[in-house]
Amino acid sequence: LVNMSLTGSVVCLPVLLIRKIHIIPRRYVSFLWIIPLFRFAIPVSIAGEYSLMAIFRNLTTKMIPLTVDTFPSGFVFANSLQFAEQYTPIIFKTDSLETLFVVFSIIWLSGLVVLMTFNIWSYLKIIQIKQRSSKLNDILYRSSEVTTPMAVGVLNPSIIIPGDYEYPTETVFIELHERLHIKRHDNLYKIIFLIIACFHWMNPIIWYSHKIFIADLEFACDDSVIKAIGSEHSHEYAHSLIASAEKQSWYLSKFGSSNMEKRVMQILDSNAIVQLSWILFAIFYGLLSYFLLANA
After folding, report:
1. Which of 69, 77, 151, 212 could form a disulfide with 181 if both were Cys (CB 3.0 to 4.6 A apart)?
2. DSSP code of 32?
3. Three-state SS letters, 164-232
């Protein structure tokens, strides 16, 4: 887990820089975060000479091959801390290191249980709000218990808007925004990222990355909305975005966010930026994935 946390943190750094490249369409940027999530979630990877881990050889001095029934699998473990002799099964170099990791494991597990319990409680609270809400159409609900629009659920998704919103006059852009969140399966991505972050709760980099990831989902949805409605309606959409953000609540899915100024500027400047086609982005994404996911 510690090795995954270290290598995942290293991979987060170039993603944080690459996401700022303006020629990458905002609706694609959020997919960049899949790469570090693999690092945080999967302990093994292929070996590659032309990779970020090959550059940082001092961090990954020792790689441990994964064998299956005594045959090499082609995958290797990163042993950044070099506390283990082998991984299948794990054998520590000294008894004191093993004791240290037992204590660490108890602390880590306690934090994990607390975080998972809190997040499950928060999710159930939102589901209860939905059950008490009045239904307006196939997936749209209204409730006086929320102060900002949000998409809820994964298998049976729905949208909840505040009780003081006039339907349909004040909800056209809001509903479109949240429907695009549902179409893009953003709630599922949020849950996956949050679960992985809970497992690495001691690592501040993953929590910062989680915050940026949530913002990138909002940027992506804004970009998709402008593509759907046309740039001629961008000012109307920006106005509805600001009006909704003024009523935001701390624990609900965000139609507005702390990046409001950046989001509005992106909406209004959507036609001024030349962007990569999806084909060029796919090629770039494939090369980047190999560079960041392969071990030394």
Report:
1. 151
2. G
3. CCCCCCCCHHHHHHHHHHHHCCHHHHHHHHHHHHHHCCCCHHHHHHHHHHHHHHHHHHHHHHHHHHCHH
Q: 141 with 133: CB under 8 angstroms?
A: yes
Q: Which amino acid is at 25?
A: P
Report how far Cα 198 is from the mean position of its chain's Cα atoms. Answer: 12
pLDDT tier at 256, thresholds 50, 70, 90: very low
* Owner of token pair 């006059």: 169
The single residue listed with the structure tokens 């809970």 is 198
At 14, is the secondary structure helix, strand, or coil?
Answer: helix
CA-closest candidate to residue 13, choices 34, 36, 29, 31: 36
Are 108 and 1 in contact by the 8 Å Cβ rule? The answer is yes
Token pair 């045959």: residue: 71
Please report the pLDDT score of residue 71 as a whole number.
45
How would residue 158 be classed by pLDDT, with cut points 50, 70 and 90? very high
Q: For residues 122 and 150, is the Cβ–Cβ distance under 8 A?
A: no
Q: How far apart are CA 78 and CA 96, in angstroms?
A: 21
Tens digits of residue pLDDT in 34-62: 999 998 988 777 777 777 777 766 555 55
Q: Which two tokens stand for residue 258?
A: 């702390």
